[in-house]
Design brief:
The chain is built from twelve helices and no strands. Helix 2 crosses helix 7, helix 6 runs antiparallel to helix 7 and helix 8 packs antiparallel against helix 10.
Length: 275
C-alpha cells in the first residue's frame, strides 16, 4: 500500500512535472522575499502553468508533429490545459512583460525544437548549462526588472548593485545544480556537455566552486548576518547533494533532492529574513 502511494506521488510530482512547476513558483517567492516586492497572482499562475506545460512537452515529444499525433495520452491533455491556463494568465500581464516572456519562451522552445528553420540550440556545444541557468533566473526576475520604476525602496537599497548581485548569485546556483543532471544524462544525452568534456569529478568540482562563489557573492552584496547564514546553509546542503549525486540510484530521488534545493533556498531565506 505504501509502495503504491509512493508511486502515485512520484507520477504526479516527477513524471508529470508538478514538482518542477512548484520550484518555478518558489523562485518568484525567493525574489519577492529578498527584494520585498510583491508579484501579482497572474505572474505566479503564468509561471506555474507555463513551466508545467513546457516540461511535459519536452519530456515526451521530439517534435511538434509527434505531439499532435500522440493525443490519446494523459500528458497531451496536461500540456494543452497547462498552456491554456498560462495563456489566460498571460493576458493579465503588462505588455512589456508579455514581450519579454515571449522572447524567453521562444528561446526555451528553440532549445528543444527546430522552429522557422532555425537549428535547435541543443546542437550548440556546451550551451545547455548557461541557457538553462539564464532562463530560470529570468523566470524569477523578469517582472521585477521591468518594474524598476515602480519599486520605491530601490534607491534605499543600492538597487542596481543589489539586484545585479542577486542575479549573479542565482546564476551560480542554477549552473551548480544543473551540472549533476548533465552527469546523469551523459549516456543517453547526445549533446556536447561539460561532463562529457571534463569528466564527472571535474564537472562536479566546478559545481562546488560555483556554490562557494554563491556564498562569497552574498557576503559582498547583502551585508547581513542572517543573509550570510542562509546562503551558507543552502550552499552546504547543496554541496553535499552534488558531491553524493553520482551514487544516487533512484532517479526520482535525484529530482527531489537536486530540484528541491530551489524550494529549500526560498524556505531558508524566508526563515532567516522574515524579521
Amino acid at each position: 500500500m505504501i509502495s503504491k502511494s509512493t508511486r502515485l506521488i512520484d507520477v504526479f510530482f516527477i513524471d508529470f512535472d508538478f514538482f518542477i512547476a512548484f520550484c518555478s513558483v518558489s523562485i518568484l517567492l525567493f525574489f519577492s522575499i529578498l527584494m520585498k516586492y510583491h508579484y501579482p497572482f497572474s505572474v505566479y499562475g503564468f509561471t506555474f502553468t507555463s513551466t508545467l506545460g513546457t516540461y511535459n512537452l519536452f519530456r515526451t515529444y521530439k517534435s511538434f508533429q509527434t505531439f499532435y499525433t500522440e493525443w490519446r495520452t494523459v500528458r497531451f491533455f496536461v500540456v494543452i490545459l497547462s498552456f491554456a491556463f498560462s495563456g489566460l494568465f498571460f493576458l493579465f500581464l503588462p505588455l512589456e512583460v508579455q514581450v519579454f516572456y515571449c522572447v524567453v519562451g521562444f528561446l526555451t522552445m528553440l532549445y528543444k525544437f527546430n522552429i522557422f528553420g532555425l537549428v535547435s540550440l541543443r546542437s550548440v556545444p556546451y550551451l545547455k548549462l548557461p541557457l538553462i541557468a539564464v532562463i530560470w533566473v529570468l523566470t524569477g526576475s523578469i517582472y521585477l526588472l521591468l518594474n524598476f520604476s515602480h519599486y520605491n525602496d530601490l534607491n534605499q537599497m543600492n538597487d542596481v548593485h543589489r539586484i545585479s548581485g542577486l542575479l549573479l548569485m542565482e546564476l551560480f546556483f542554477f549552473i551548480a545544480i544543473t551540472i549533476p543532471f548533465d552527469v546523469f544524462g551523459m549516456i543517453e544525452d547526445d549533446m556536447k556537455t561539460v561532463p562529457k568534456r571534463l569528466g564527472v569529478q571535474k564537472s562536479l568540482l566546478i559545481s562546488k566552486i560555483l556554490l562557494v562563489l554563491y556564498v562569497i557573492t552574498s557576503l559582498f552584496i547583502f551585508k547581513r548576518i542572517e543573509f550570510l547564514i542562509a546562503s551558507i546553509l543552502l550552499a552546504g546542503i547543496t554541496f553535499s547533494i552534488v558531491h553524493w549525486s553520482p551514487k544516487f540510484q533512484n532517479k526520482n530521488l535525484k529530482f527531489y533532492l537536486i530540484d528541491g534545493t530551489i524550494i529549500l533556498q526560498t524556505i531558508l531565506f524566508y526563515l532567516f529574513l522574515r524579521g
